[in-house]
């Protein structure tokens, strides 16, 4: 299948800080991809570079094998950015009409109303009178106006109420079923898991995992054995075991991440380590996600 997006060694540095650090991946036609990561992970910066709205410090981003700045490419892309900014003093229906006029094969006004859940009342409102949630809905209509093959949504549901979220994701599913390629960013693991067929997990400017939600969840939901150590325990004592993926200290406890808690316990007793308050945890997804993307860990 065709690569719709291809980014290669993409890097963006802002005043010495690497916001995006040597990221490469490609996205095929018809994929629904979640770019998942905590705030500051580099999701928006990556999207802006894919869209040609921000120049990379290094590497390149191609959309339909071209630079996304080109008009012929622009016409095939729909975008809803994190901050939806709308021209003041236009009515919603006027601004949507204006956007539709930019494209060779726009969706009809009725189709856009059906897809976004905008009401007649909303359409007659002036843009400066809209609430945050209504603005998002208009932003969604503008992204769909040109009937694009490829859609980008940057944290689309932030500021939406539950009903608006539901309408939004239902429409995204509809668009996906029509074979459109959809790329959205989110910091909600649940959202990524519910909607996407692929998750690209970002942390601190890098891709830390890329795969099917099932596989990512498998990776994230490691089990752990944790305990309080009454004397120094070198990390090496556990990290060298084949079924142990990580060892770290948090909140005064040592955590041994593993897919075989029995073996870790056996080892713990075998070594006759002086520890107390041993706990075994079956990985919870949200917690594992936090652990993976956590900013600071204590030194051991
Ligand atoms: N225009 C900018 N100038 C300086 N730093 C920026 C700019 N845009 C983003 N950053 C920094 O780059 C990092 C990644 O930001 P961003 O891509 O917005 O993350 P995300 O969208 O995942 O929350 C953050 O540390 C952010 O503060
Ligand atoms: Mg962002």
Keyphrases for this structure?
300 residues; alpha/beta; Rossmann fold; Alpha-Beta Plaits; 2 domains; six-stranded mixed beta sheet; four-stranded antiparallel beta sheet; 34% helix; elongated; binds adenosine-5'-diphosphate; binds magnesium ion
What's this entry about, in short?
The protein has helices spanning 43-50, 71-74, 92-101, 109-116, 120-123, 132-144, 162-177, 189-195, 213-220, 236-239, 261-270, 285-293; strands at 3-14, 17-28, 32-36, 58-63, 77-80, 150-154, 181-186, 198-203, 206-211, 223-229, 244-250, 253-258, 275-281. By secondary structure, it is an alpha/beta fold.
Molecular structure report:
- This protein is an alpha/beta fold and 300 residues long.
- The protein has 2 domains: 3-218, P-loop containing nucleotide triphosphate hydrolases (Rossmann fold, 3-Layer(aba) Sandwich); 221-293, 2-Layer Sandwich (Alpha-Beta Plaits), CATH 3.30.70.
- Helix content is 34%, strand content 30%.
- It has 12 helices and 13 strands.
- The protein has helices at residues 43-50, 71-74, 92-101, 109-116, 120-123, 132-144, 162-177, 189-195, 213-220, 236-239, 261-270, 285-293; strands at residues 3-14, 17-28, 32-36, 58-63, 77-80, 150-154, 181-186, 198-203, 206-211, 223-229, 244-250, 253-258, 275-281.
- It has a 6-stranded mixed β-sheet with strand order 5-6-7-3-8-9, sandwiched between helices. A 4-stranded antiparallel β-sheet has the order 11-12-10-13, with helices on one face. A 3-stranded antiparallel β-sheet has the order 2-1-4.
- Strand 6 (150-154), helix 7 and strand 7 (181-186) form a beta-alpha-beta unit.
- The longest helix is centred in the middle third of the chain and has 16 residues, at 162-177.
- The radius of gyration is 23 Å and the shape is elongated.
- The termini are far apart.
- It holds the Pfam family ABC_tran.
- It comes from Lederbergia citrea.
- GO terms for molecular function: ATP binding; ATP hydrolysis activity.
